[in-house]
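User: tokens in, sequence out, please.
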């Protein structure tokens, strides 16, 4: 884990997690996701000892929205986190097996509702297994319920109307974090913020250069978006690591904007 990030405390290395595993007030959360719903079975077949499984794609998502994966309301989020044993005053450590894409989404979801003490396991499940540390295949016991009190941070999430009002502002950088082919309307989903092999985050210099090359400037507000807010949340996490103080996610992203003929589009 690079020590050159402005906020390295947002990451947990396997060493850090091994040292803190089982400590009171630290909750490990398995955020793995599969489209076919098999992630819970993956958890049963092997997980970090003591980790709670969070079905974030159902429990942290507003299923009534037409745009997929929109963040659920505070009551639903509080209920899901409490059931996973994540409560006020605790530290949550999130991991997945997909280059922190989904852990980043859960991190951002918690930030929106004022839960600040959250770390993402650098390299996720891949790094934990590679470190040779214990893996549990025991059926997860239900964690002791906790109380999470949501405190909405509206600056971290924007609606389509909010983004439209920001167009042309000299004080805001709007960042499309889709892959180049997708940006051009040709498909594609990959990002460049993690190392393909071990899924750890790129070093601070590399990440900083990627955003600088995209025209992102320090001292300005940054709004990230992609197809439906998932890669955008990961990008927001990395911007946080780099010390950008004012970062928001346009949650509906291109899924909503691109479907509306009344909104402007650059081609």
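Assistant: Sequence out:
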């Amino acid at each position: 884990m690079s020590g050159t990030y402005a906020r390295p405390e947002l990451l947990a290395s396997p060493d850090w997690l091994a040292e803190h595993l089982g400590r009171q007030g630290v909750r490990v959360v398995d955020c793995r996701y599969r489209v076919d719903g098999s992630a819970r079975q993956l958890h049963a077949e092997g997980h970090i000892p003591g980790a709670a499984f969070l079905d974030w794609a159902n429990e942290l998502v507003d299923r009534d929205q037409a745009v997929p994966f929109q963040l659920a309301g505070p009551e639903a989020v509080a209920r899901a986190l409490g059931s996973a044993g994540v409560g006020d005053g605790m530290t949550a450590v999130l991991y997945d097996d997909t280059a922190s894409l989904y852990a980043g989404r859960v991190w951002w979801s918690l930030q929106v509702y004022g839960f600040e003490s959250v770390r993402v396991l650098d390299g996720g499940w891949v790094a934990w297994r590679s470190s040779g540390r214990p893996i549990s295949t025991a059926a997860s016991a239900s964690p002791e319920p906790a109380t999470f009190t949501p405190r909405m941070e509206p600056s971290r999430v924007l609606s389509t109307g909010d983004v439209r009002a920001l167009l042309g502002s000299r004080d805001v950088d709007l960042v499309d974090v889709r892959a180049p082919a997708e940006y051009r309307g040709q498909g594609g989903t990959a990002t460049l913020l993690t190392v393909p092999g071990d899924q750890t985050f790129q070093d601070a210099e590399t990440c900083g250069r990627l955003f600088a090359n995209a025209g992102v400037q320090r001292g300005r507000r940054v709004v990230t978006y992609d197809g439906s807010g998932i890669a955008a949340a990961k990008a927001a996490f990395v911007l946080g690591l780099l010390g950008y103080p004012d970062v928001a996610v346009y949650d509906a992203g291109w899924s909503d904007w691109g479907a509306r003929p009344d909104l402007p589009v650059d081609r």
